[in-house]
Amino acid sequence: MSKLEAPQETKTGQLRAHLLALIDRELQPGEKLPTERDLAEQFGVSRLTVRRAVDRLETDQLVYRVQGAGTFVSHKSIAKTIELTSFSEDMRSRGLEPGSRLIDAAQVPAGARVGFALGISPADPVVRIRRVRTANGTPMCLEHSYVPIAIAPGLLDQPMDGSLYDVLERAYKIRLERADQSIKATVLELEEAELLAVRPLAPALLVERVTYDQRGRAAELAKSIYRGDRYSYEITIHREG
Ligand code: 16G
Protein backbone atom coordinates (compact mmCIF):
# COMPACT_ATOMS: atom_id res chain seq x y z
CA MET A 1 0.00 0.00 0.00
CA SER A 2 1.47 3.38 -0.96
CA LYS A 3 1.66 6.22 1.54
CA LEU A 4 -1.18 8.11 -0.05
CA GLU A 5 -3.55 5.15 -0.03
CA ALA A 6 -2.99 4.38 3.64
CA PRO A 7 -6.01 4.66 5.93
CA GLN A 8 -6.26 7.86 7.95
CA GLU A 9 -4.93 6.34 11.16
CA THR A 10 -1.84 4.94 9.46
CA LYS A 11 -1.25 8.29 7.78
CA THR A 12 -1.40 10.02 11.15
CA GLY A 13 1.10 7.50 12.49
CA GLN A 14 3.37 8.07 9.50
CA LEU A 15 3.12 11.80 9.99
CA ARG A 16 4.14 11.50 13.63
CA ALA A 17 7.03 9.16 12.81
CA HIS A 18 8.18 11.57 10.12
CA LEU A 19 8.03 14.55 12.49
CA LEU A 20 9.87 12.69 15.23
CA ALA A 21 12.61 11.69 12.79
CA LEU A 22 12.88 15.28 11.56
CA ILE A 23 13.24 16.55 15.11
CA ASP A 24 15.64 13.85 16.16
CA ARG A 25 17.90 13.62 13.15
CA GLU A 26 17.49 16.37 10.61
CA LEU A 27 16.58 19.64 12.25
CA GLN A 28 18.69 21.46 14.79
CA PRO A 29 17.17 23.03 17.92
CA GLY A 30 15.62 26.34 16.89
CA GLU A 31 15.05 25.24 13.27
CA LYS A 32 11.61 25.51 11.76
CA LEU A 33 9.27 22.63 11.00
CA PRO A 34 7.57 22.50 7.56
CA THR A 35 4.27 24.39 7.50
CA GLU A 36 0.98 22.71 8.35
CA ARG A 37 -0.12 23.09 4.76
CA ASP A 38 3.02 21.41 3.37
CA LEU A 39 2.72 18.53 5.82
CA ALA A 40 -0.98 18.09 5.08
CA GLU A 41 -0.23 17.86 1.37
CA GLN A 42 2.74 15.57 1.78
CA PHE A 43 0.84 13.07 3.94
CA GLY A 44 -2.59 13.45 2.37
CA VAL A 45 -4.22 14.39 5.67
CA SER A 46 -6.24 17.40 6.77
CA ARG A 47 -4.60 20.43 8.34
CA LEU A 48 -6.54 19.62 11.51
CA THR A 49 -4.78 16.24 11.67
CA VAL A 50 -1.43 17.96 11.25
CA ARG A 51 -2.31 20.47 13.93
CA ARG A 52 -3.20 17.65 16.34
CA ALA A 53 0.10 15.91 15.67
CA VAL A 54 2.00 19.14 16.27
CA ASP A 55 -0.06 19.83 19.42
CA ARG A 56 1.13 16.52 20.79
CA LEU A 57 4.76 17.37 20.01
CA GLU A 58 4.25 20.68 21.76
CA THR A 59 2.78 18.98 24.83
CA ASP A 60 5.82 16.71 24.86
CA GLN A 61 7.98 19.86 24.68
CA LEU A 62 9.72 18.67 21.55
CA VAL A 63 8.66 21.80 19.64
CA TYR A 64 7.41 25.28 20.43
CA ARG A 65 5.16 27.60 18.46
CA VAL A 66 5.81 31.24 17.77
CA GLN A 67 2.69 33.07 16.72
CA GLY A 68 2.86 34.21 13.12
CA ALA A 69 6.28 32.62 12.60
CA GLY A 70 5.76 28.85 12.78
CA THR A 71 6.79 25.86 14.85
CA PHE A 72 10.37 25.30 15.94
CA VAL A 73 12.39 22.44 17.38
CA SER A 74 12.97 22.79 21.13
CA HIS A 75 16.38 22.85 22.68
CA LYS A 76 17.07 19.38 23.95
CA SER A 77 17.58 19.08 27.63
CA ILE A 78 19.76 16.50 29.18
CA ALA A 79 18.94 15.34 32.67
CA LYS A 80 21.86 14.06 34.61
CA THR A 81 21.03 11.34 37.06
CA ILE A 82 23.90 11.18 39.42
CA GLU A 83 23.63 9.51 42.74
CA LEU A 84 25.02 11.39 45.69
CA THR A 85 27.51 8.87 47.00
CA SER A 86 30.26 8.93 49.59
CA PHE A 87 33.81 7.93 48.74
CA SER A 88 33.21 4.63 50.55
CA GLU A 89 30.08 3.86 48.52
CA ASP A 90 31.78 4.96 45.30
CA MET A 91 34.70 2.59 45.86
CA ARG A 92 32.50 -0.33 46.92
CA SER A 93 30.40 0.07 43.78
CA ARG A 94 33.64 -0.40 41.82
CA GLY A 95 34.44 -3.56 43.76
CA LEU A 96 37.21 -1.87 45.76
CA GLU A 97 37.64 -1.74 49.53
CA PRO A 98 37.60 1.89 50.75
CA GLY A 99 40.01 3.11 53.39
CA SER A 100 41.00 6.31 55.11
CA ARG A 101 44.23 7.69 56.51
CA LEU A 102 43.73 10.76 58.64
CA ILE A 103 46.25 13.52 58.00
CA ASP A 104 44.74 15.94 60.51
CA ALA A 105 41.45 17.23 61.87
CA ALA A 106 40.97 20.55 63.62
CA GLN A 107 38.47 23.22 64.46
CA VAL A 108 39.31 26.40 62.51
CA PRO A 109 37.51 29.59 61.48
CA ALA A 110 35.81 29.07 58.14
CA GLY A 111 37.66 31.93 56.44
CA ALA A 112 36.32 33.84 53.45
CA ARG A 113 36.28 31.16 50.75
CA VAL A 114 34.97 28.24 52.84
CA GLY A 115 32.52 30.52 54.67
CA PHE A 116 31.14 31.82 51.40
CA ALA A 117 30.69 28.31 49.99
CA LEU A 118 28.93 27.12 53.15
CA GLY A 119 26.84 30.26 53.56
CA ILE A 120 28.31 31.10 56.98
CA SER A 121 30.48 33.99 58.11
CA PRO A 122 34.30 33.78 57.87
CA ALA A 123 34.62 33.77 61.66
CA ASP A 124 32.24 30.84 62.17
CA PRO A 125 33.98 27.63 63.25
CA VAL A 126 34.22 24.61 60.99
CA VAL A 127 35.86 21.23 61.43
CA ARG A 128 38.51 20.72 58.78
CA ILE A 129 39.33 17.08 58.07
CA ARG A 130 42.15 16.10 55.76
CA ARG A 131 42.33 12.48 54.70
CA VAL A 132 44.07 10.29 52.18
CA ARG A 133 41.41 7.98 50.80
CA THR A 134 42.51 4.57 49.68
CA ALA A 135 41.09 1.84 47.47
CA ASN A 136 42.33 -1.67 48.25
CA GLY A 137 45.05 0.02 50.30
CA THR A 138 46.37 2.22 47.45
CA PRO A 139 46.06 6.01 47.69
CA MET A 140 43.28 7.19 45.40
CA CYS A 141 42.22 10.59 46.59
CA LEU A 142 43.16 13.45 48.85
CA GLU A 143 40.12 14.81 50.59
CA HIS A 144 39.66 18.07 52.47
CA SER A 145 36.28 18.36 54.17
CA TYR A 146 34.85 21.38 55.98
CA VAL A 147 31.81 20.86 58.18
CA PRO A 148 30.21 23.74 60.14
CA ILE A 149 30.40 23.09 63.88
CA ALA A 150 26.85 24.40 64.16
CA ILE A 151 25.71 21.39 62.13
CA ALA A 152 27.77 18.76 63.90
CA PRO A 153 28.90 19.84 67.39
CA GLY A 154 31.57 17.54 68.83
CA LEU A 155 32.45 16.13 65.40
CA LEU A 156 36.14 16.04 66.36
CA ASP A 157 35.33 13.41 68.97
CA GLN A 158 33.79 11.08 66.41
CA PRO A 159 35.79 8.32 64.70
CA MET A 160 37.58 9.61 61.61
CA ASP A 161 38.82 6.35 60.16
CA GLY A 162 35.60 5.33 58.45
CA SER A 163 32.86 7.06 56.52
CA LEU A 164 32.21 10.72 57.27
CA TYR A 165 28.76 10.49 55.69
CA ASP A 166 27.94 7.61 58.05
CA VAL A 167 28.96 9.73 61.04
CA LEU A 168 26.90 12.70 59.86
CA GLU A 169 23.90 10.53 59.15
CA ARG A 170 24.04 8.31 62.23
CA ALA A 171 25.38 10.59 64.97
CA TYR A 172 23.77 13.83 63.82
CA LYS A 173 20.70 12.58 61.92
CA ILE A 174 21.77 14.65 58.95
CA ARG A 175 20.27 13.35 55.72
CA LEU A 176 22.45 14.42 52.84
CA GLU A 177 20.08 15.18 50.03
CA ARG A 178 21.74 17.06 47.22
CA ALA A 179 25.01 18.65 46.22
CA ASP A 180 26.48 21.22 43.88
CA GLN A 181 29.63 19.91 42.35
CA SER A 182 32.34 21.00 39.96
CA ILE A 183 35.00 18.87 38.31
CA LYS A 184 38.22 20.27 36.93
CA ALA A 185 41.53 19.05 35.63
CA THR A 186 44.53 19.88 37.79
CA VAL A 187 48.11 18.82 38.51
CA LEU A 188 49.45 17.67 41.86
CA GLU A 189 51.72 19.89 43.87
CA LEU A 190 54.72 18.38 45.62
CA GLU A 191 53.08 17.62 48.95
CA GLU A 192 49.87 16.32 47.36
CA ALA A 193 51.86 14.10 45.01
CA GLU A 194 53.79 12.62 47.95
CA LEU A 195 50.58 11.84 49.84
CA LEU A 196 49.12 10.15 46.77
CA ALA A 197 52.38 8.31 45.99
CA VAL A 198 52.78 9.73 42.47
CA ARG A 199 55.27 12.09 40.83
CA PRO A 200 54.90 15.86 41.32
CA LEU A 201 52.83 17.56 38.62
CA ALA A 202 51.02 14.31 37.82
CA PRO A 203 47.55 14.98 36.38
CA ALA A 204 44.58 14.77 38.73
CA LEU A 205 40.87 15.46 38.92
CA LEU A 206 39.75 18.16 41.32
CA VAL A 207 36.18 17.67 42.51
CA GLU A 208 34.58 20.30 44.72
CA ARG A 209 31.24 19.64 46.30
CA VAL A 210 28.90 21.49 48.63
CA THR A 211 26.42 19.04 50.10
CA TYR A 212 23.09 20.08 51.57
CA ASP A 213 20.98 18.32 54.16
CA GLN A 214 17.24 17.69 54.42
CA ARG A 215 16.76 21.20 55.82
CA GLY A 216 18.63 22.83 52.96
CA ARG A 217 21.64 23.65 55.14
CA ALA A 218 25.12 23.36 53.66
CA ALA A 219 26.56 20.45 55.64
CA GLU A 220 29.94 20.01 54.00
CA LEU A 221 32.33 21.63 51.57
CA ALA A 222 34.71 19.06 50.19
CA LYS A 223 37.67 19.33 47.93
CA SER A 224 38.68 15.94 46.62
CA ILE A 225 41.75 15.45 44.46
CA TYR A 226 41.69 12.13 42.64
CA ARG A 227 44.68 10.52 40.97
CA GLY A 228 44.32 10.92 37.23
CA ASP A 229 45.92 7.55 36.58
CA ARG A 230 43.50 5.63 38.78
CA TYR A 231 40.18 7.40 38.84
CA SER A 232 37.59 8.13 36.18
CA TYR A 233 34.36 9.95 36.83
CA GLU A 234 31.44 7.94 35.50
CA ILE A 235 27.84 9.04 35.18
CA THR A 236 24.69 7.83 33.50
CA ILE A 237 22.78 10.45 31.58
CA HIS A 238 19.28 10.20 30.20
CA ARG A 239 17.78 12.03 27.30
CA GLU A 240 14.43 13.48 28.25
CA GLY A 241 11.29 12.51 26.42
C1 16G B 1 33.02 12.05 48.68
C2 16G B 1 32.80 13.53 48.74
C3 16G B 1 33.17 14.14 50.04
C4 16G B 1 32.74 13.35 51.24
C5 16G B 1 33.10 11.90 51.08
C6 16G B 1 32.52 11.11 52.20
C7 16G B 1 33.28 14.52 46.59
C8 16G B 1 33.98 15.60 45.89
N1 16G B 1 33.60 14.27 47.82
O1 16G B 1 34.34 11.76 48.45
O2 16G B 1 32.48 15.36 50.08
O3 16G B 1 33.35 13.82 52.40
O4 16G B 1 32.57 11.41 49.86
O5 16G B 1 32.98 9.80 52.06
O6 16G B 1 32.45 13.93 46.01
P1 16G B 1 33.00 8.81 53.29
O7 16G B 1 31.61 8.79 53.81
O8 16G B 1 33.49 7.54 52.73
O9 16G B 1 33.96 9.42 54.29
From TrEMBL:
It holds the Pfam family UTRA. InterPro entries: Bact_HTH_transcr_reg, Chorismate_lyase_/UTRA_dom_sf, Tscrpt_reg_HTH_GntR, UTRA, WH-like_DNA-bd_sf, WH_DNA-bd_sf. The keyword tRNA processing does not apply. It comes from the Bacteria. Gene3D superfamilies: Chorismate lyase-like, Winged helix-like DNA-binding domain superfamily/Winged helix DNA-binding domain. The keyword GTP-binding does not apply. Residues 9-76 form the HTH gntR-type domain. SUPFAM superfamilies: Chorismate lyase-like, Winged helix' DNA-binding domain. Keywords: DNA-binding, Transcription, Transcription regulation. PANTHER family: MANNOSYL-D-GLYCERATE TRANSPORT/METABOLISM SYSTEM REPRESSOR MNGR-RELATED, MANNOSYL-D-GLYCERATE TRANSPORT_METABOLISM SYSTEM REPRESSOR MNGR-RELATED. This is GntR family transcriptional regulator. It comes from Nonomuraea purpurea.
